[in-house]
Design the sequence.
C-alpha cells in the first residue's frame, strides 16, 4: 500500500530524557502517599480495629499471666505485639486494593505506555504503605505505653520496635501487591484477608508457644513465620535485647519482603505484557 | 512494508484463548499527518487493534510498525513515539488534573523544570485551567476525556491513538474534542489513529476510513470514495393519500431503481444525481399528486456500512449528535478526497 511520507514525522518524538529509576519511584511514591493521605477514612478504621482488639483482649485474657512460666505479669506487655502485626496485615490489603484498582481502571495501562520500569511502580506503591506503617506503629506504641505497657529495652528498643514494625508492614504490603498483580481485582485481594488473619491466630499471638497445651496448635505455631514476627517485637517489650528473637523477627520479615517483591516483580511483567 | 509510513500493518492477527479471532489478518497504512478513522461496531476488533499497535497486547501473528518501529521487537521506541487515550479514561479519582500531568511528565522523562510548564500549557490547551487543582473524581465525562487527551500529549508524540474518544460525551464536549484533534493533525502534523463507532465522527474528522467488522477490514478509502462506491442519491416520496402509492410508483418508474416502503411511500434511486429532483417535483405537480413529504437522501457512511456488511452499524445513533454538532474548524474537510 503506497502512502505519503514526510520523514520528519517519523522520529521518536521528543526532547525528553529517560527518567531515572529513583525519579520514577519517587513520583509514584508521592502519588501513593497522596492517595493514602486523602483517603483517611479508608485507613483510620483498619488502624483503630487492632487497638480495639488490644483493649478487649488485654482485659479479658489478663488471667493468662497466672499460668506458670508466663513471661510477664502484665498481659498487655505480651499482647502489644499483636496490633503491629494486625495493622501490617491491613496495610497489605490497602496496598493490594490500591494497585488492583489501577489494574481495573486501566491506570496501569496508562503507566505501561510510559518508559516506566515495573520495579519503580512496586517500590513507589510502597510509599503509601510506609506512611501508614509509620503512623500506625507510632500510634500503637503510644497507645500501649499509655495503657501501662513497659518497654524494658528503653528508647533504643522503641526505635528498633518501630523499625521492625515498618519492615513488617512493607513485607505485607508487597504481599498485597503480589495478590493484586496476580488476581487483578480488589475483591480477590480482600478475599485473601481472612486467610492472613487465620495465620495470626494460629501463631503465638495469645500465648507463648511453650505454654500452648494443644500439641497440634503448638506445632502449627512453631512452623508459622508470624510467630517469629510477633516474638521479635515482643522481645523488645518483655525481654530486652534478645538477639535470637530479633534475628528471627527481622529475618522472617526480610524473607517475606524479598519473596513477595520477587513474586510481585514476576507478576508485574506478566501483567504489563507490553513488548 | 513501507518503512516511511507512520503506521503500517500487515496481516495482523490476534486470537484469544477459546475465543474467535478478534483481529483476523488486517492490512492498513497510515501516512504521516493523516487522520485515519477506524470505524466499526462494538466487538469488531477496533480496540484490540489499538492495544496491539500501542504495544499493550502482543499480536498472535502478522507484523506492524508504528513510527517506523516494530511493535513486537521495538516496543520501547514505539511507546516513545506515540501518545494514546484508550477506551476508558483511565484516571486516578484521588489526584488532581495537574498532578496527573506532572506525574505523566515525570514518567515520560521531561526535565524537572519543564514538567510544571508543560502541565500548565496542556491544561490551557484543553480548557482545564480552572479545574486543574480539583480532584479528577469530580470531573465530568468531557473533562476527563480532555485530561486524557492532554496526558497523551505530554511528551509531544508524533502519533496519537484515540480509542473511541467521544463515547458518552455530550454534543459540546464532542465538538470541542473534534476541534482539538483536527487542530493537532492539521496544524501540528500529528498522525491520528482514531477508532469510533460513530459514523459522523469518522465522516467529519477522518481523511481516510477503514471499516472493520468481525476482525476484518471490509472497506477502506476517503469518505467521498466510500460513498461514491455505493452510487448516487435517492429520493423518498410519501403521498398524502396512502392509496396513491401505485400511481406514484408509475410516475417515478422511469428515474431509476425503485423500492416501496409501505403507506404508499416510494424510494427511487437517482443515477443522474440530485438534479433530477426538480423534474420529479414537476411531474408530481403536473399529475396533481399531493405529497406529504419528499426527502432527498445523500449516501452516508451508514449506507456504506450497510452495503459492505449487510447490516446497520450499532451505535450509529450518534446521528442526533451529528445533526446538531458543528463541524470542527481546520483543514480536515478540505483535505478529504485527496
Sequence:
Amino acid at each position: 500500500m503506497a502512502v505519503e511520507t514526510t520523514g520528519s514525522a517519523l522520529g521518536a518524538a521528543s526532547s525528553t530524557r529517560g527518567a531515572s529509576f529513583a525519579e520514577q519511584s519517587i513520583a509514584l511514591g508521592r502519588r501513593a502517599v497522596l492517595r493514602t493521605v486523602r483517603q483517611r477514612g479508608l485507613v483510620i478504621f483498619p488502624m483503630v480495629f487492632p487497638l480495639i482488639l488490644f483493649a478487649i483482649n488485654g482485659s479479658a485474657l489478663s488471667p493468662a499471666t497466672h499460668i506458670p512460666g508466663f513471661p510477664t505479669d502484665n498481659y498487655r506487655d505480651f499482647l502489644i505485639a499483636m496490633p503491629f502485626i494486625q495493622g501490617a496485615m491491613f496495610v497489605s490489603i490497602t496496598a493490594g486494593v490500591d494497585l488492583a484498582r489501577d489494574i481495573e481502571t486501566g491506570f496501569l495501562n496508562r503507566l505501561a505506555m510510559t518508559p516506566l520500569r515495573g520495579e519503580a511502580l512496586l517500590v513507589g506503591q510502597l510509599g503509601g504503605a510506609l506512611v501508614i506503617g509509620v503512623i500506625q506503629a507510632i500510634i500503637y506504641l503510644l497507645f500501649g505505653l499509655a495503657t501501662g505497657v513497659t518497654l524494658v529495652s528503653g528508647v533504643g528498643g522503641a526505635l528498633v520496635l518501630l523499625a521492625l514494625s515498618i519492615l513488617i508492614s512493607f513485607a505485607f504490603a508487597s504481599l498485597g501487591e503480589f495478590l493484586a498483580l496476580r488476581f487483578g481485582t480488589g475483591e480477590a485481594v480482600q478475599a485473601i484477608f481472612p486467610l492472613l488473619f487465620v495465620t495470626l491466630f494460629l501463631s503465638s499471638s495469645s500465648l507463648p508457644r511453650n505454654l500452648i497445651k494443644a500439641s497440634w496448635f503448638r506445632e502449627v505455631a512453631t512452623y508459622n513465620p508470624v510467630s517469629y514476627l510477633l516474638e521479635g517485637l515482643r522481645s523488645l517489650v518483655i525481654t530486652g535485647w534478645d538477639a535470637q528473637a530479633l534475628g528471627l523477627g527481622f529475618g522472617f520479615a526480610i524473607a517475606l519482603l524479598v519473596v513477595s517483591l520477587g513474586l510481585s516483580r514476576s507478576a508485574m511483567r506478566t501483567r504489563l505484557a507490553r513488548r | 512494508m513501507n518503512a516511511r509510513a507512520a503506521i503500517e500493518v500487515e496481516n495482523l492477527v490476534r486470537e484469544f484463548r477459546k475465543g474467535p479471532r478478534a483481529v483476523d489478518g488486517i492490512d492498513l497504512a497510515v501516512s504521516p499527518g493523516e487522520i485515519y478513522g477506524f470505524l466499526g461496531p462494538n466487538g469488531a476488533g477496533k480496540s484490540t487493534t489499538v492495544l496491539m499497535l500501542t504495544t499493550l497486547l502482543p499480536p498472535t501473528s502478522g507484523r506492524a510498525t508504528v513510527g517506523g518501529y516494530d511493535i513486537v521487537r521495538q516496543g520501547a521506541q514505539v511507546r516513545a513515539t506515540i501518545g494514546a487515550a484508550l477506551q476508558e479514561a483511565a484516571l486516578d479519582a484521588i489526584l488532581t488534573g495537574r498532578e496527573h500531568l506532572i506525574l505523566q511528565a515525570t514518567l515520560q522523562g521531561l526535565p524537572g523544570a519543564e514538567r510544571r510548564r508543560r502541565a500548565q500549557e496542556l491544561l490551557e490547551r484543553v480548557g482545564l485551567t480552572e479545574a486543574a487543582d480539583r480532584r479528577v473524581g469530580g470531573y465530568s465525562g468531557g473533562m476527563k476525556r480532555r485530561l486524557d487527551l492532554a496526558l497523551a500529549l505530554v511528551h509531544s508524540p508524533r502519533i496519537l491513538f484515540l480509542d473511541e474518544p467521544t463515547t458518552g460525551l455530550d454534543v459540546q464536549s464532542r465538538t470541542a474534542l473534534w476541534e482539538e484533534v483536527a487542530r493537532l493533525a492539521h496544524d501540528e502534523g500529528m498522525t491520528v489513529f482514531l477508532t469510533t463507532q460513530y459514523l459522523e465522527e469518522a465522516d467529519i474528522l477522518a481523511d481516510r476510513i477503514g471499516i472493520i467488522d468481525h476482525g476484518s477490514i471490509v472497506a477502506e478509502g476517503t469518505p467521498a470514495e466510500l460513498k461514491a462506491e455505493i452510487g448516487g442519491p435517492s429520493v423518498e416520496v410519501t403521498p398524502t393519500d396512502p392509496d396513491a402509492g401505485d400511481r406514484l410508483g408509475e410516475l417515478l418508474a422511469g428515474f431509476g431503481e425503485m423500492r416501496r416502503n409501505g403507506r404508499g411511500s416510494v424510494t427511487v434511486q437517482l443515477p443522474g444525481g440530485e438534479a433530477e429532483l426538480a423534474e420529479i417535483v414537476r411531474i408530481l405537480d403536473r399529475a396533481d399528486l399531493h405529497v406529504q413529504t419528499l426527502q432527498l437522501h445523500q449516501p452516508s457512511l451508514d449506507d456504506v456500512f450497510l452495503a459492505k456488511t449487510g447490516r446497520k452499524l450499532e451505535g450509529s445513533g450518534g446521528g442526533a449528535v451529528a445533526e446538531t454538532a458543528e463541524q470542527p474548524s481546520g483543514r480536515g474537510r478540505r483535505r478529504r478526497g485527496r
In short: DSSP finds eleven helices and no strands in chain A. Chain A touches chain B through 43 residues (CB under 8 Å). Confidence is low (pLDDT under 50) at residues 1-15 of chain A.
